[in-house]
Amino acid sequence: MILFGKLEYRKKIFIYLSLIFIVFTIFVLLFQYKRERDFKRDQIEISLNNIAEITYNYIDRKGLFETGNYSALDSLYLYVLKENTRVTVLDNKGKVLYDSEVREVSEMENHLHRPEIQKALKSGQGSNIRESATTGYEYYYYAKNYRDLFVRAAAHYDVEVKDFLAVEKLFLFYLITLFLVTWLLMSLITKNLSSALFKLKDFATKLSLGEAVKEKIEFPKGEFGEISKQIADIYDKLTIAKGKIEIEKNKLYSHLIALNEGIAFFTPQKKRILRNNHFIQYLNIISGDKNITEEELFKVSEFKGVNKFLEKHLKSKTNIDQNNLPQMEEVVRKDKRTFNVHTIIFSDRSFEIVIRDITKLEKQKKLKEEITSNIAHELKTPITIILGYLELLKENNIKKEDQVKYIENAYRQSERLSDLIKDISLLQKMSEARDLFKFEKLNLNELIYEVKDSLGLNLTEKDIKVNIRMSKPILIKGNRSLLISVFFNLFDNAIKYGGNGIEITMNNYLEDSNFYYFSFSNTGNTIDEKHFLRVFERFYRVDEDRSRPKGGTGLGLAIVKNAIQLHGGEITVSNLSQGGVEFLFTLAKSS
After folding, report:
1. Calpha distance 245→251 (Å, rounded)
2. Of 154, 145, 159, 149, nearest to 81 (Cα)?
3. Quick one: pLDDT at residue 446?
4. How far apart are CA 219 and CA 227, in angstroms?
5. Can you give the residue ranges of every domain in the chain?
6. What interhelical angle do 400-432 and 359-393 show, nearest 10?
């Protein structure tokens, strides 16, 4: 450092840069040397590996391992082997079975402990450069383990192979030339740089000593200290601003990914700026093309309205008001799915397109409309009947027995109306307030027998036999009132529509680590298969004319399905081959 201190600043910089470049050059040279050596060695190993593969395939195809006639390989090597190439075949214990350069292989010693064979035993293949104990020549050995035998291919490690493995000298000459040229350029650069640094140093020194700078220094206007401070301040501000922008960018991108909507931003030229995964997924569905890109959106017929809107505003020369941005919405339907497409054009005429999947909302809206209509229809019937009987009772000339009859009929209709309201309320609660149901550990066997006993009179009246096949107590975590509703409605459904003298069977036929599997069947009337998908819908009746007089609300099976789903299960219906209906359902062991 003392010696360097006496040198001019230019020489210091030059020497430092030269040392850095020399070290860099040495590292590049060593890396290139190793890379070239490894590459050329790999080339030899590839060649020897091909010979080993050909040899083994020939042995396998000709069955030489079974016949032991390895001398047949001589005919193969007349065309395959190059000069100074040797092939040795060994069994898995190291005994030499064949050698292309030695005729009396029986006199050759066991090769199991040869370095290349040991490597092949461990990793399947191995190589080594050494002198052969048999022939006295130096070889580049390559061995491959085929489990039942080893095939070892070798090339004479003579001048030709050594030259092949040696690193080419042309690269070294190129590197030295590059070093000299770079050295010359560094000399010129450091000359100019040192001049600027001397002025800067002189300027900084004078400022630090408080000396006035009289001579003109080739710097931007103002003193260097102020310039440096301004540059540093600007740099700091830019760094802070960049960090904030990066944070906001990451927040925006994270928000886009988390959105359940597809959103994409485009330039005024309709080139993509940014989009999330949902956008391309929805675009694939709408276009029917899995390989479509965002920028091909404008060629899709379903987006014709969007494209027309964009063409109108992007080509317009009128300035866009930031507070009143042009935007449009339209609904696109494809393959039973409905999407809302919202387009906004910004003041710089870039724009965004947002695609929302509103299929579920549309279905819910339609379902609510149907439910409202069905509820109004179902409520209207008992209310109309009750009002009719009440109007009759207002008459003064009605016989006493007729009055009693009318009051009983009105009472039955009011009960039906009450049941209907209760069922609607229960379904609504299951749909919108599931968390309000209390779940506790229950014995399902006790609940089923409780429901059976409560319906004992109805079962006896219709001479219905009940078989409950529960091999052991079924314990689940569930809601008592909902599970009672499930079995009550199943029994009640069978009693009302199954007919007289039928047989009801409740069976727990299977269980696994997550579910109990049940069947509930009766030997009564069957259901037309066309009704299977709809019997669990609210107010759906298989036979409107026959089922309504029996007093049902049309909500029993809908309650059953919703309650079972609330307990983590599913339910299906089918006909029995011998006649009757069977419900198959599951209940989760831990809801």
Report:
1. 10
2. 154
3. 92
4. 9
5. 12-165, 259-357, 362-428, 437-588
6. 160
Under the banding of pLDDT at 50, 70 and 90, the label for residue 419 is low
Domain 437-588 has CATH 3.40.1350.10: no
Distance separating alpha carbons of residues 210 and 427, to the nearest angstrom? 89
Please answer whether residues 90 and 97 qualify as being in contact, where contact means their C-beta atoms are separated by less than 8 angstroms. yes
Hey, what are 514's tokens? 């997550």
Instruction: Identify the architecture of domain 362-428 in CATH.
Output: Orthogonal Bundle (1.10)
Q: At what angle do helices 400-432 and 556-566 cross, to 10 degrees?
A: 30
Alpha carbon of residue 507 to chain centroid: 40
The two tokens of residue 15 are 């020497």
**What does the longest C-alpha to C-alpha distance in the chain come to?**
137
Fold of 259-357: Beta-Lactamase (3.30.450)
Q: What is the pLDDT of residue 504?
A: 93
Strand partners, 150: 90, 145
Task: Please state which of the four CATH numbers 3.30.450.20, 3.40.640.10, 3.30.565.10, 3.10.180.10 is assigned to the domain occupying 12-165.
Answer: 3.30.450.20
Question: pLDDT tens across 54-72, in order?
Answer: 888 888 888 888 888 888 8
Helix, strand or coil for residue 504?
Answer: strand
**How far apart are the C-alpha atoms of 248 and 245, rounded to whole Å?**
5
12-165 and 259-357: identical CATH topology: yes
Q: pLDDT band for position 530 (50/70/90)?
A: confident
Distance CA 356, CA 259 (A): 10
What is the C-alpha to C-alpha distance for residues 181 and 25, in angstroms, rounded to an integer?
Answer: 13
In 206-316, where do the E strands start and end? Answer: 262-266, 272-275
365 near 345, Cβ under 8 Å? no
